[in-house]
Write a structure and sequence with these properties.
Order of helices and strands: HHHHHHHHHHHHHHHHHH
CATH topology of one domain: Serine Threonine Protein Phosphatase 5, Tetratricopeptide repeat
Largest sheet: none
Number of helices: 18
Low-confidence stretches: 20-35, 47-51, 55-60, 368-384
Structural class: mainly alpha
CATH architecture of one domain: Alpha Horseshoe
Distance between the termini: 30 Å
Helix content: over 70%
Shape: elongated
Radius of gyration: 24 Å
Number of strands: 0
Length: about 375
């Protein structure tokens, strides 16, 4: 579940970044660098051309692009109510809006709902945006919202339709991969990430999704090693690329006697750990590999490196407990094991709270009127 939530959050970030890059931007960068709304608004270079809230009458009512620029500035600067008011006025008045413009406004309304902690309203707006205009940004935003709040099955359906409508979208395939993973279909999730990486081998996103899945899987995922090897060859000095490639080899070869392959995994883990001392996971896996070879002293060194980066690494504390017991340091082993068990309890409690939140969202989503949920709608021109 932890991995599924990380994938969902990364998918949501992709939706957010698309929303920012595909619409009007501040010529001086996003004004959100300032906590003062008026300063933020001025950072967009809009003080002269676009008045502050309360002066909407100074704008031509039929100028959609100007109003869009202004409401996006409001959104980025935290004037959510003003942005919402502008959108509602545009939708009510009509102003000969194109379908693409109406869909875009609905999607921005969804963004506002998510930012103001109303995920059910956000899901509803993203759905309406997709029904009005089945564009790639609209469908992706809808799927990402469902995924972010744990609605895995509807997210699989929405992303699946999105892939059929937009087969060249790498992020749509990656979103479908994340949705499959959260629904428990790990191998299908890996397959979709592999397909996304083949669609654009230079895009790092599918490799990172695939690596996260491999990290939490107890076995080697099909198609993963070849793609992660390609990623590592293209980025030889990237710690994550080395770590994920090493992980794919380690998951396939541990328990075997293939010394050459295990040596390659060790080299990759050590390189990743040295390249980035904050990458605790690589150091933990290096320690695990040493333990499998009955090299507890080397394992302790690796686990200590992991704890230097993150003192709350449950994996490192667990490994140290095993390693110290193997060298006869039972007192230290007991201490490390207790640390591990405490961290596991804290993580379990946090997960339980999150499950409760997700359960509430799913309960309300499932009890919406017939025809208003992700599972009962088709894209324009697509059969149910």
């Amino acid at each position: 579940m932890r991995t599924g939530e990380k994938l969902a959050q990364e998918t949501a970030r992709l939706a957010s970044s698309e929303s920012q890059s595909s619409t009007a931007q501040s010529p001086h960068g996003l004004g959100a660098v300032s906590n003062e709304p008026e300063v933020c608004f001025n950072n967009w270079g809009l003080a002269e051309s676009l008045p502050l809230p309360g002066n909407a009458h100074q704008l031509r009512p039929d100028d959609y692009s100007t109003r869009l620029h202004r409401l996006l500035a409001y959104e980025q600067c935290g004037w959510f109510n003003e942005a919402r008011t502008m959108i509602v006025e545009l939708l009510v008045s009509g102003n000969d809006l194109k379908r693409s413009e109406e869909g875009e406004l609905r999607r921005i309304l969804g963004d506002l709902d998510e930012k103001t902690k109303d995920p059910l309203a956000a899901e509803h707006e993203y759905e309406r945006a997709s029904q009005i205009d089945a564009s790639e940004p609209n469908y992706f935003a809808w799927g990402a919202e469902l995924l972010l709040h744990g609605a895995a099955a509807p997210a699989v359906e929405v992303f699946g339709k999105g892939v059929r409508l937009h087969p060249s979208s790498v992020r749509m395939l990656a979103g479908l991969s994340a949705a499959h993973y959260l629904s428990g279909a790990t191998e299908e999730a890996a397959k979709k990430s592999c397909e996304a990486s083949d669609l654009d081998p230079t895009n790092s996103m599918p490799y990172l999704f695939l690596g996260k899945m491999q990290e939490s899987s107890s076995y080697a995922l099909p198609c993963a090693e070849a793609r992660l090897a390609r990623y590592a060859r293209a980025h030889p000095d990237d710690s994550i690329a080395n770590y994920y490639y090493g992980l794919a080899i380690w998951k396939r070869e541990r328990g075997t006697q293939d010394s050459a392959r295990l040596q390659l995994a060790e080299t990759l883990f050590r390189k990743a750990c040295d390249l980035d001392r904050t990458l605790e996971a690589a150091c933990v896996e290096l320690g695990n590999l040493y333990l499998s070879r009955e090299q507890p002293q080397q394992a302790i060194t690796a686990y200590d490196k992991a704890l230097a980066s993150n003192p709350y690494s449950s994996g490192a504390h667990h490994g140290l407990g095993v390693a110290y017991r193997r060298i006869g340091r039972n007192d230290r082993a007991e201490s490390e094991t207790q640390q591990y068990e405490l961290l596991e309890r804290l993580e379990a409690a946090a997960l339980e709270r999150r499950r409760s939140e997700l359960g509430q969202f799913l309960f309300y989503l499932n009890n919406q009127p017939a025809g208003s949920s992700a599972t009962s709608n088709s894209a324009p021109g697509e059969a149910k």
